[in-house]
Amino acid sequence: MFATQLLGAFNDNLYKNAMVLFVVYQVYSSTAEEARFSAIASGLFTLPYVLFSALAGQLADMRDKAAIVRIVKLAEIGIMFVGATGLVLAWQGIMVETLAIPLMLAALTGLGAHSTFFGPIKYAILPQHLKKEEVLSGTGLVEAGTYLSVLAGTILAGWIPVEAAAALILVLAGIGWFAGREIPDAPAQAVDEKVDYNIIRSSIRVVKATMDEKRVFYAIMAISFFWTIGAVLFIEFPPLAKNVLSAGKEVASLFLVIFSIGVAIGSMAINLLLKNEVSARYAPISVVVMGLFIVAFHLVCKAWVPHQGGLYTIMEFATLPLAIPLMLCLLGVAIAGGMFVVPLYAFLTTVVDKSQTARTVAANNIVNSGAMAAGAIIAMALTSAGVLIVDQLLLAAAMSIGAAWLGWILYRAELAEPALAE
């Protein structure tokens, strides 16, 4: 399961970043167009979460989780074939805007659907196969593994040619399918319930049922704030690197790498601090620190002097006096973010019955994706209104205040429910 998740996250990010970096650096030449494309790509990736998360959660609770993984990983091969075709057409300059980009965006939407059906399983399978005291460690390992895969895929996307990325994503999808076939069976936990295939009705029902548990409600809302902040940051990184910092695509890739490393560090650090206890006690301070680092990142970007002689290479960028403070600020954002979000995911799989865990994760995905879509829309609106990319960072910083408030309420609810700690 861990290997399947590792390969899937790596492949997703290799494809997404190869596509976005190629379009931003090779196709478009204005900040508005680049930011718009980045936001559209983010929105299309999250759309399947809104539409199909409830169905995915039901299937994961009412069917064998390992069997679903095998189907999903087989579908990934077809999705990557569409994406690879788009990448190759764009590389060759053939019908770039009329066919290549639509194919790439269609594949990205397909990957969103792939992640929608796989996402509830990667968390819900943990309490089924692990002891209760191992769930936080297991969640931390899944999160850390995910972000290290994001890291590796992002690095590779920034350095290899787009045609090589097109070939590699197909190979990795095939290996991921073989890995998924080896996952031990995880039988259905809700055996006497029927799947509701009406995606609107089931989405409303799943979210409503999940929100009745107040600790889960507050955890989902806090996670949603985190992913809204993350959506705004990830949308802005490529155009910010190119147009504000005068940096090449390798530097844009480096930002995503630093972010991924930081979240992985934060995921493991919070597990050490909590000693395998599922608790939100560090959530409020973690997200406040995250917001402060975003403000610091904004101030360094504002002080940046644009380069007049083209784009910096990664080696040229690393020697600049403000480069180290900039990267340290970004690392701080990510570490604090990882420390904030990992215990909240553990809440989702420990405070509900095992027969409901996948649907709880699905409800979280629905709300998260709606929040991320809202973040993408806000970023597009601010860009259209003429707000500079660098100033949009302050929106992400402001949202950390709301996340801290929700984290504090969650911790108070946790103290009022001592059964969670037993």
TrEMBL record:
A GO CC annotation given for this chain: plasma membrane
- Any one Gene Ontology molecular-function term assigned to this protein's record: transmembrane transporter activity
Q: Which InterPro entries match?
A: MFS (IPR011701), MFS_trans_sf (IPR036259)
Keywords attached to this Swiss-Prot or TrEMBL record, sorted alphabetically, are: Acyltransferase, Cell membrane, Membrane, Transferase, Transmembrane, Transmembrane helix, Transport
Q: Which coarse location class describes where this protein primarily resides?
A: membrane
This protein's membrane topology, according to the annotation, is: Multi-pass membrane protein
Mind telling me which residue stretches traverse the membrane in this protein? Answer: 37-59, 71-94, 100-123, 135-158, 164-180, 216-235, 255-274, 286-305, 325-348, 369-387, 393-411
Q: Which domain of life is it from?
A: Bacteria
Q: Does the keyword Manganese apply?
A: no
The cellular location(s) given in this protein's UniProt record come to: Cell membrane
Q: Which PANTHER family match?
A: MACROLIDE-EFFLUX PROTEIN, MAJOR FACILITATOR SUPERFAMILY (MFS) PROFILE DOMAIN-CONTAINING PROTEIN
Query: Could you tell me what this protein is called?
Result: 2-acyl-glycerophospho-ethanolamine acyltransferase
